[in-house]
């Protein structure tokens, strides 16, 4: 017989907090004792309206089945939601008094931000552009942490300060590629997204919302139209730029797939993430791949 979750009052005593974090013990808390972490608005990928409606109906019918992840910064009485802010919002809208939670034992606010980013990467169907924006944030946070570690090492005299402190540990390219790998995209995709946002910061929000692709953002940042290729020619069939169809053997039902360019790019990103080649993906039922000259 299932045991009912205990109802506890926040904040917990430090020793009880650590024990529950270590054992991953869930419990109930007053819905009004929580608040979303201030960084969620900046870091979290927006939830589409239809997805929020489905969440609302699910909570209304079944209640909250997945506990919220919460964190109390050491030495404070504030408790923040790091994952589950939409569930918390729905609970308040439905008039629920208590919500299930799991506590996280994190050292500082940077660790909390890194946790938020990684939770977003693990959870939803994201476009490469959305993943790139999360990877960019992860890269910046890890770079800050690496710089602090190096500064602390130099201060302790464990390393001779014979040269200026490097931008990050490891090198910039390696750190970028590592962040990209954790986000499930290529280092090149992340590099293009970072260059686009650096040149035109307002593109970050469009990428986060999935309104444009990384290639579109990159072209816009370079001063070209969204529908213009990097060589300056319009990306249309009218100037002779016709799509190239690549046929590969297939097993099972034969399916002809015609995809919009952006969707094809997303599919290629998935293929790269799964470390599969087009021919291998074809064995899962795809017969024709739509590609483009110069891509």
Give structural notes:
The protein is of the alpha/beta class. The strands form 2 sheets. It has a 5-stranded mixed beta sheet, sandwiched between helices. The protein has a two-stranded antiparallel ribbon with strand order 6-7. Helices cover about 45% and strands about 10% of the residues. Helix 6 (about 130-155) crosses helix 7 and helix 6 crosses helix 8.
Brief descriptors of the model:
single chain; alpha/beta; five-stranded mixed sheet; two-stranded antiparallel sheet; 7 strands; 47% helix
The SSE string, one letter per element, is HEEHHEEHEHHHHHHEHHE
Strand content: 5-15%
Helix proportion range: 40-55%
The total of helices stands at 12
Short summary of the structure?
The protein has a five-stranded mixed β-sheet, sandwiched between helices. It has a two-stranded antiparallel sheet with strand order 6-7.
Q: Could you outline the blueprint of secondary structure elements for this entry?
A:
Blueprint: H1 14-23, E1 27-30, E2 35-36, H2 40-43, H3 49-62, E3 68-71, E4 80-83, H4 85-94, E5 98-103, H5 109-123, H6 128-155, H7 172-183, H8 187-199, H9 203-208, H10 214-221, E6 244-247, H11 261-273, H12 278-282, E7 288-291
Parallel strand pairs: 2-4, 3-5
Antiparallel strand pairs: 1-5, 3-4, 6-7
């Amino acid at each position: 017989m299932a045991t009912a979750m205990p109802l506890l009052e926040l904040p917990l005593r430090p020793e009880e907090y650590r024990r529950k974090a270590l054992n991953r013990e869930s419990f109930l808390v007053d819905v009004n004792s929580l608040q979303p972490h201030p960084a969620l608005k900046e870091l979290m990928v927006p939830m589409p309206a239809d997805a929020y409606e489905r969440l609302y109906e699910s909570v209304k019918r079944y209640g909250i089945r997945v506990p919220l992840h919460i964190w109390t910064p050491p030495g404070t009485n504030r408790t923040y939601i790091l994952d589950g802010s939409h569930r918390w919002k729905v609970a308040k809208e439905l008039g629920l008094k208590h919500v299930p939670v799991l506590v996280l034992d994190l050292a500082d606010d940077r660790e909390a931000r890194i946790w938020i980013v990684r939770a977003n990467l693990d959870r939803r169907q994201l476009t490469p552009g959305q993943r790139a924006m999360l990877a960019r944030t992860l890269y910046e946070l890890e770079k800050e942490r690496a710089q602090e570690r190096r500064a602390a090492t130099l201060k302790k005299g464990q390393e001779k300060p014979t040269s200026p402190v490097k931008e990050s540990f490891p090198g910039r390219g390696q750190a970028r590629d590592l962040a990209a790998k954790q986000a499930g995209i290529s280092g090149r995709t992340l590099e293009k997204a970072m260059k686009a946002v650096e040149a035109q910061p307002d593109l970050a929000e469009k990428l986060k919302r999935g309104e444009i692709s990384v290639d579109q953002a990159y072209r816009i940042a370079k001063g070209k139209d969204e529908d213009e290729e990097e060589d300056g020619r319009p990306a249309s069939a009218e100037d002779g730029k016709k799509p190239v169809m690549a046929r590969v053997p297939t097993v099972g039902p034969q399916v002809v797939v015609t995809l919009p360019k952006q969707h094809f790019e997303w599919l290629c990103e998935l293929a790269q993430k799964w470390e599969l080649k087009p021919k291998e993906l074809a064995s899962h039922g795809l017969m024709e791949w739509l590609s483009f000259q110069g891509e």
